[in-house]
Each structure stands twice: as C-alpha cells, then as structure tokens.
Amino acid sequence: MSESVMIKANAKSHSDYSLQINRWILKPIGAWPYFSTTSTRERVISLFLIVLCYVIILFNIIPCVAHLIFVGDSFYRKVKVFGPLTHSFLGGINYTNLLFRGRNISDCVERIETDWRMVKKEDEQQVMLKHAKFGRYVSTMCAIFVHSGIMSYCIVSASNVQIIKVGNETRTIRTLPFDVYNKMIPVDTSPANEIVLVVQFLSAFIADSSGIAFYTLASVLASHACGQLGVLTIWINDYVNEAGNRKQDASFRKIETIVKHHLRILDFIARIEEIMSWVCMIELFRCVLAICMVGYYIVTVVPEVCLSLCPKSVFQQKCLTTMHLYINMKLNLSNVVFFISKEQNASYIVQ
C-alpha cells in the first residue's frame, strides 16, 4: 500500500481524534451540529436534550430570581444570591448562542474533515497531528479547570448542613448552591431539597458546558488553522526547491493551488472569529463581574470571620472555591483570545 493511500485511509480517524473532545462536550447537551449524515433518531434525541437543558436551566433561574425579588434580605445577602444567579443566567445565554452558531460550527467541522482528506504526504500529516494534539490538550485543561471550579463550589455548598425547626419538628437539610424562593418550592422538606439540589448540579453542569464548548472549539479550530499554515509552508518550500525542475504550466498550477489554499485558511480563521466574537464579549463581562463579586465577598466576610460570626473553615472554602472558578474562567478566556489573535497574525504574515 502506497504512502498516500495509507494517509487517506487514516484521514477519518485523525479528524475524529482532533474533534473528539468537542463531540464529548457538545453531544450531552444536544449542541452537536447536524450534518447531512445525521439520522432522524439522532436529531430527535438532540432536540429532546435541548428542551431538557432549557427546562433545567429555567428551573434553576426562576426560583432564584423570585427569591431575589420577593424575599426581604439585606443588601449583602442579595448580592450573594446575585453572584451565582448571573453565572447560571449567562450560561443560558451562552447555550442559546451555541445553538444559533450550529451552522457555522458544522461548516468548520466539515472543513476540518476535508483538510484531513487533502493530506498526501507524511510530513503534512505529522504537522497537522502535532497541532491537533495541542488543541486536545488545551481543550482538556479548559474543561478540567472550569468544571472543577463550579463543581467544587456546588459540592462545598451542599456539604454544609442546616438544622431548622418547623413547629415542633426539627429538620436537617443541605445548603443549596443557588437560593430558592421557599413559597415556590418548599426546599426545607424532603425530598424537595434533594431534588432541587440535583437539578442545580445539572444546571451548573449545563451552564459550564456551554462556556467550555466555546473554549474547546476555539482551541481546536485555531490549532487546526495553525496546522494548515504549517502545511502551506511545506507547499511553499517544496515549490521553491523544485522550481528549476518544473515546467511553466505546472508552476502556475502549483501557485494557484497555494493561493487557493491560503484563501481557504483565511476564510476558516474568519469563521472562527465569527463564532467567537459574541461569546468573548459575554465572557469578558462575566469575568469582570465575577472578580468584583469575589472582592466584595472577601471584604464583607472578613469582618465576620474576625468577629467569629462566621466559621473560618466555611469562609475559606467559599472564598477558595469561588476564586478558583472565576479566575480559571478568566484564564481560559485570555488563552482563547490570545490563541485566535496569534493565528490571525500568522495568517497575515504568510500573506
């Protein structure tokens, strides 16, 4: 079997390898785009998952908003409720944006599969594999850090137990990560408390997955664009090295192929920017708001710790998990923006 035949035979497995993390993140929330090969059964399952995700998100947001409006808490308490609420609300906006960008995402996925099928030489394949591995690494790290942040916050919150008295009855309930309007859902009873806790975990997972989906998409797509620039460099070097041994007509055809491929790369980078432009603005707003919230929590809780009104261990857990969540979100956003900017600059250098 010749080298080109073996490379083409591995094209499908290599494209699946580069997109595997994205598929794992997008499919559970029904956001993996449709293709011409998508079956009716897969479309129905995806639609069911989308409806289910929206129900879970709204089930978390609506009681929390009702608590913020109707419960006469202090300003400090309302701010504490507002912080997690904005995370869930903006996560829902990201999820909606992810669904609206489905067509653009599918075009990029098909472009990646086509580029893998176009590979003919071993060195071109190795360049693309190198950048595909890097994209998977960045995607994995983003998913681990962001999910660990929000899940650690939810776990720490749920690990705290409250003992309340209702009449002559004493009840033990778990603290919810998101406050709930008690007249809407009686969370001080069982099993309502446990059900709401599970739904809030799922809502946090969906909200995080929508943000992680954009992080991983930006990482994988930008890495692929970088790999294509590497392939284009190989083609240019081959053209220069073989210029003396090529006929004029063949030389023009080679130049035409290089120019067309360069335009394909520029178009691909423009599609990445189109997908990421709106979500970058949302994530920037969320990160700035989150940093302000963390600063406010620390300033207001420290005096309580000093006066022994709040257990020091609870304070440390809350601050560490909240800072872990939001700082990692900011780092992921910064890495994605930097990576896309680097690819755009590299494309113009080649041009």
From TrEMBL:
The chain crosses the membrane at residues 44-70. InterPro entries: 7tm6_olfct_rcpt. Pfam families: 7tm_6. The keyword Transmembrane applies. Its main location: membrane. It is a multi-pass membrane protein. One of its GO terms (biological process) is signal transduction. The keyword Nucleotide-binding does not apply. It comes from the Eukaryota. Keywords: Cell membrane, Membrane, Olfaction, Receptor, Sensory transduction, Transducer, Transmembrane, Transmembrane helix. GO terms for molecular function: odorant binding; olfactory receptor activity. Signal peptide: none annotated. It is found in: Cell membrane. One of its GO terms (cellular component) is plasma membrane. PANTHER family: ODORANT RECEPTOR, ODORANT RECEPTOR 19A-RELATED. Belongs to the insect chemoreceptor superfamily. Heteromeric odorant receptor channel (TC 1.A.69) family. This is Odorant receptor.
